[in-house]
Design a protein that fits this description.
By secondary structure, this protein is of the alpha+beta class. 43% of the residues lie in helices and 17% in strands. The chain has 11 helices and 12 strands. It has a 5-stranded mixed beta sheet, sandwiched between helices. A 3-stranded antiparallel beta sheet has the order 10-11-12. Strands 1-2 form a two-stranded antiparallel ribbon. Helix 8 links the parallel strand 8 and strand 9. 36% of the residues are buried.
């Protein structure tokens, strides 16, 4: 007989893909003995499957097809943990648990849920467009996404453990920089991959869009995201406004740092734009770019 807590465990593991007993203990604030008792029971009942793929390492649990159907997650498909992907799956689960602990009101979405949501809605939600595949956009999907509780704003998160080619990283970083539907992008990276990502971010001129942190700095990520939402601050690049009187064909581009979430922020931004328009005497200086409603106060966005 399964309990409500059993249902929560199967739903969480099925949504995430894979998790170890240690992750379940932290996510559900359970003792080690209780966590193993519930996990073993769910495994015997055919709702979870245990994958012990690396010698000397704790295994990971995945929801079976029966477990997914029980929790109405059949559309996600069964996750398989293989030796080559074990460490990445472990670190993603670790990041998911820590993010949820730091931001309990936020929704922490796995790549499985992101993939399903984007397929159902036929649009990018937490992914970046990195090219075309026939008539459809080719998307790069993050490992996790944070979704704010009030506004549904999205922060995409990558867990980077291996070094990708410079060309591949550059393409991905350019895609993230163009992804105006995102509130922010963070990399949690091991040392060498982190250095490669930073080089790619700099080469793509995407330092205003992409943040690179160490693998163990989930708390820093959470603190930065929380602070940006609580501040409600609008910061304007005064030098950009000063350049309004200087011709720079075809348009003069203004760079504004703003937070559009609050009424106060929107009002202050509107006043700044109105003042700039009066100074210039024409709205053409703004070109064809529009302010995105989900930009971060710590990020640069163009209008």
């Amino acid at each position: 007989m399964q309990t409500d807590r059993d249902a929560e465990i199967v739903y969480w593991i099925g949504s995430l893909g894979a998790a170890g007993a240690e992750h379940v203990m932290r996510q559900f604030e359970m003792s080690r003995s209780m966590a193993y008792q519930r996990l073993n029971s769910l495994t015997r009942d055919g709702l979870l499957e245990h994958h012990a793929v690396l010698y000397g390492r704790s295994g990971m649990y995945c929801a079976t097809s029966a477990g997914l159907r029980w929790r109405n997650l059949g559309r996600l498909g069964v996750c398989r943990v293989r030796p080559g992907g074990f460490e990445h799956a472990w670190q993603v689960a670790q990041a998911a648990v820590e993010l949820q602990a730091c931001l309990p009101d936020w929704d922490v979405m796995s790549d499985r849920r992101i993939r399903w949501f984007e397929a159902e809605n036929n649009r990018p939600f937490a992914s970046a467009e990195v090219g075309r595949s026939g008539e459809r956009p080719a998307l790069h999907r993050p490992d996790l996404a944070l979704v704010s509780p009030e506004d549904g704003l999205v922060v995409s998160i990558e867990v980077e453990l291996s070094v990708k080619s410079a060309a591949r990283l550059a393409t991905i970083c350019r895609g993230w920089a163009r992804a105006r539907h995102l509130y922010g992008v963070y990399y949690l990276a091991a040392p060498e991959p982190g250095r490669a990502v930073r080089r790619a971010v700099n080469a793509a001129h995407a330092t205003d869009s992409i943040n690179v942190l160490n693998l163990d700095q989930v708390y820093v990520l959470a603190a930065e995201v929380r602070e940006s939402f609580e501040t409600g601050e609008v910061r304007i690049d005064e030098a950009a406004f000063a350049r309004l009187g200087t011709p720079s064909p075809p348009y003069r581009e203004l760079q504004i740092m703003a937070d559009m979430r609050t009424q106060e922020g929107r009002s202050r931004l509107a006043s700044a734009i109105e003042s700039a328009l009066r100074h210039e005497g024409s709205s053409e200086c703004f070109g064809d770019r529009v302010m995105q409603p989900n930009c971060s106060p710590s990020k640069s966005r163009w209008i």
